[in-house]
Amino acid sequence: MSGISAFFPAYGDAGTIASMVVLAERTLRSLTDDWEIIVIDDASPDHCGEVLDELTAHYPRLRVVTHERNRGYGGALRSGFATATKDLVFYTDGDAQYDPRELARLMAVLGPDVDVVNGYKLFRGDGPVRALVGRIYHGIVSTLFGLRIRDVDCDFRLIRRSMLADIRLESTSGTICVELIRKLQDRGARFAEVGVNHYDRPFGSSQFFRPKRLLQTFAQLGRLWWRLVVLRSESRLAPRAANPES
């Protein structure tokens, strides 16, 4: 069984990050002997750092990466990918909108012909308005970027680390999910998809659905589309040849 790095970006997640670490630790122990947990504390303004200090005293395989200044969601994911050391990399958010125990569902479909297992929300748990906005957002970016998955906004992913080796991610915001999937597709990654549960946030509120943030996101998407689709700045990267024994 391959080793697994599981990481969580955390910003304002002091109320949930402990449960995420505990559930991830139990799940990983049931899947493999070779695992690690990483939390990216993206200069969280609450007492997330204190909670993580306490957790590291009890969980020796937990590593914490602390950003002195906030780098945005994209910056947190980039730190997580850079820190992961195992053959498989799993990530989800630290706000408990996804259940880390469902990593087992992703592992169940990871065969030798699959490089990425992408979750998709069976039902959106944070209300009909956000569900509608999410569907519109997915429809727009899927069309613009030629994405071939059913839920780019589902941050519940398992990726072979070898697929990330030649990919340079640049986004600092939530647009990193679009950038990641598009660049993985261009790399020749083979995808599988699994339905997972989605829950309302038990603490705090999402930053994404604020009007100013939405405008910023679409401006960043426009620049990303110009680079990846019009200029095809990553087209020099040779697609990965399919290898049934990989």
Word description of this protein:
The protein is an alpha/beta fold and 246 residues long. The chain has one domain: Spore Coat Polysaccharide Biosynthesis Protein SpsA, Chain A (Alpha-Beta Complex), CATH 3.90.550. The chain has helices at residues 17-31, 48-58, 72-83, 103-108, 128-145, 161-164, 176-187, 211-230, and strands at 4-10, 35-41, 62-66, 88-92, 116-121, 156-160, 191-196. Strand 1, helix 1 (17-31) and strand 2 (35-41) form a beta-alpha-beta unit.
- The parts where pLDDT drops under 50 for at least 5 residues are 241-246
First-residue to last-residue Cα separation: 13 Å
CATH class: Alpha Beta
Strand neighbour order, sheet with most strands:
3-2-1-4-6-5-7
Rg is: 17 Å
Helix-strand topology string: EHEHEHEHEHEHHEH
Structural class: alpha/beta
Count every beta strand, where a strand is a DSSP E run of 2 or more residues: 7
Query: Going by CATH, what is the homologous superfamily?
Result: Spore Coat Polysaccharide Biosynthesis Protein SpsA, Chain A
Fraction of residues in β-strands: 15-25%
Give the rounded overall mean pLDDT: 90
**Largest sheet composition:** 7 strands, mixed
Which geometry do the CA atoms define? globular
CATH topology: Spore Coat Polysaccharide Biosynthesis Protein SpsA, Chain A
What CATH architecture label applies? Alpha-Beta Complex
As for the number of domains, it is 1
Helix amount, in percent? 25-40%
Number of helices: 8
